[in-house]
């Protein structure tokens, strides 16, 4: 029994991962189970094909049990249920929401629906015990590229986002084009370390002056055109150079805009979140640019950058503390905004 | 949408793509399915943005690659924008609840539709997009 602490069970099923976690007092991760990383497949009925919501349904109870067991608690010890209700894939979200509602009802404990994007930001509260708002957040992942002003625990004000492809998506697509394969983010990151980032002059797309929005879909076309031109000219393509030059064009714009946003809103810290926050060059460049203005850059460890239940539990805990409650009519909202 | 079938269109500029998108939107009826086929960078998402514009969608239409589908309900008809790039088959498409969208009274636009061709109804409007000769232009074939 751990009754001296407030325990939140966090459930995340918005996309590929069935993930459940137990978090104490919104900050301490007692368990963090992510289905696609479980090696003992037999226990969970085989390897999980990525996106089918049916698989979430097959997994969810086992993953909840595993999270409780690893945290060494039982359902009776849990004080609060937090669940992602959007944005995401509707069929996938519904599984988590239905499980969360049933548990909250059966255990007679409060339920909080969490915005997946708020969760990514909250991952930093787990990583950095002393971190408190206000700060500027940069959420970059396969599905999202957002700059978010965070004045307090329960307010996330989106000030910029992508107008076409997300940053992570651009990495995946260009990786495919240059034959690096999936997942594009880590592969491009690795290849780029061996390449010359000034080899090819990919366009930096800043959009209108003062805009915090992004546009990455043109880069993919530029990469394709570059490859075609080189092939037609009979020149050999240096994949590492393409990766490094492309990556530089993406992360330079992201880093510049995040630092400018922090300056405009008077924030002394930039907090990274989402899968692309693990990109080596982005971390390096943004830290460099921020340091020039006396701004600190924080980020979660890679395991907390991916989709996970712990970040949802943390976000739910702070919403709960602010008096928020969700009813049993909580529904999945696939297109949920910030 | 019979009036715009069996046509080969040369899209020399972004403005040509926009015209095509607006024409599709104008002719669109509840339950219509528009299947887009074409490699990376051929303008599938761009065409979808213009279909959305023609339907009067006011939200920013962004890539649905990660979430597979995004819904827009601010236009004349609901728009369901799919990108099945990450799926492996028509069965997986059905697993994620595609039927509910396709049978709804909105317009469904499906990028990389060749992946899920086996489960699409026969009356879907199929548009194939390819690179033109000069890298900038595109060729749309409406089947």
Structural commentary:
Chain A has 338 residues and is α/β, with parallel strands linked by helices. Chain A has two domains: 7-124 and 305-321, Nucleotidyltransferase, domain 5; 131-302, Nucleotidyltransferase, domain 5 (2-Layer Sandwich). Helices cover 42% and strands 18% of the residues of chain A. Chain A contains ten helices and ten strands. In chain A, the strands form two sheets. A five-stranded mixed beta sheet of chain A has the order 3-2-1-4-5, sandwiched between helices. In chain A, strand 4 (80-86), helix 2 (90-107) and strand 5 (111-115) form a beta-alpha-beta unit. The longest helix of chain B is centred in the first third of the chain and has 14 residues, at 14-27. Chain B has a single domain (2-142), classed as P-loop containing nucleotide triphosphate hydrolases (Rossmann fold, 3-Layer(aba) Sandwich). Chain B is built from four helices and seven strands. In chain B, helix 1 crosses helix 2. Chain B has a seven-stranded mixed beta sheet, with helices on one face. Chain B is globular. Chain B is of the alpha/beta class. The A-B interface holds A 15, 49-54, 87-92, 141-144, 161-166, 168-169, 172-173, 176-177, 217, 220-221, 224-225, 228, 334-335 and B 40-41, 45-46, 60, 62-63, 65-72, 86-88, 92, 95-97, 135.
Strand order of the largest sheet of chain A: 3-2-1-4-5
Give the strand tally of chain B: 7
Please give the number of β-strands of chain A: 10
Mean pLDDT over the full residue set of chain B: 90
Low-confidence stretches of chain B: none
Tally of contiguous helical segments of chain B: 4
Question: What would CATH call the class of the largest domain in chain A?
Answer: Alpha Beta
């Amino acid at each position: 029994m751990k009754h001296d602490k407030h325990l939140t069970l966090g459930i995340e099923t918005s996309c590929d991962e069935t993930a459940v976690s137990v978090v104490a007092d919104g900050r301490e991760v007692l368990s963090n189970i992510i289905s696609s990383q479980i090696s003992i497949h037999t226990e969970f009925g085989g390897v999980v094909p990525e996106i089918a919501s049916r698989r979430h349904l097959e997994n969810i109870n086992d993953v909840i049990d595993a999270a409780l067991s690893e945290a060494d608690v039982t359902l009776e010890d849990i004080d609060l249920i937090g669940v992602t209700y959007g944005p995401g894939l509707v069929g996938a979200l519904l599984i988590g929401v239905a499980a969360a509602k049933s548990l909250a009802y059966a255990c007679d404990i409060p339920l909080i629906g969490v915005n997946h994007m708020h969760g990514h930001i909250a991952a930093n509260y787990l990583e950095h015990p002393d971190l408190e708002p206000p700060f500027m957040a940069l959420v970059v992942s396969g599905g999202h590229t957002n700059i978010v002003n965070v004045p307090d625990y329960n307010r996330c004000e989106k000030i910029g986002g992508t107008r076409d492809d997300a940053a992570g998506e651009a990495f995946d697509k260009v990786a495919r084009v240059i034959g690096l394969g999936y997942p594009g983010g880590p592969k491009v990151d690795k290849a780029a370390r061996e390449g010359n980032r000034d080899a090819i002059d990919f366009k930096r797309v800043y959009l209108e002056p003062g805009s915090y929005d992004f546009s990455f879909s043109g880069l993919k076309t530029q990469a394709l055109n570059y490859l075609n031109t080189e092939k037609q000219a009979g020149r050999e393509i240096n994949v590492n150079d393409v990766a490094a030059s492309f990556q530089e064009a993406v992360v330079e714009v992201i880093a510049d805009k995040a630092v400018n946003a922090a300056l405009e809103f008077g924030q002394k810290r930039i907090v990274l979140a989402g899968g692309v926050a693990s990109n080596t060059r982005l971390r390096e460049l943004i830290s460099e640019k921020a340091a020039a203005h006396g701004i600190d850059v924080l980020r979660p460890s890679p395991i907390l950058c991916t989709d996970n239940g712990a970040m949802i539990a943390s976000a739910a805990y702070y919403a709960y503390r602010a008096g928020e409650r969700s009813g049993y009519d909580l529904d999945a909202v696939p297109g949920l905004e910030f | 949408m019979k009036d715009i079938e069996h046509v080969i269109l040369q899209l020399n500029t972004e403005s040509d793509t926009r015209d095509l998108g607006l024409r599709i939107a104008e002719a669109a009826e509840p339950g219509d399915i528009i299947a887009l086929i074409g490699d990376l960078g051929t303008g599938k998402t761009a065409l979808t943005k213009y279909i959305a514009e023609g339907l009067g969608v006011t939200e920013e239409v962004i890539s649905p690659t990660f979430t597979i589908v995004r819904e827009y309900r601010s236009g004349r008809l609901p728009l369901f924008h799919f990108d099945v790039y990450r799926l492996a088959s028509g069965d997986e498409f059905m697993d994620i609840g595609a039927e509910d969208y396709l049978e709804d009274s909105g317009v469904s636009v499906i990028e990389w539709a060749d992946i899920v061709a086996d489960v699409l109804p026969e009356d879907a409007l199929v548009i194939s997009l390819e690179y033109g000769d000069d890298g900038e232009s595109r060729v749309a074939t409406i089947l």
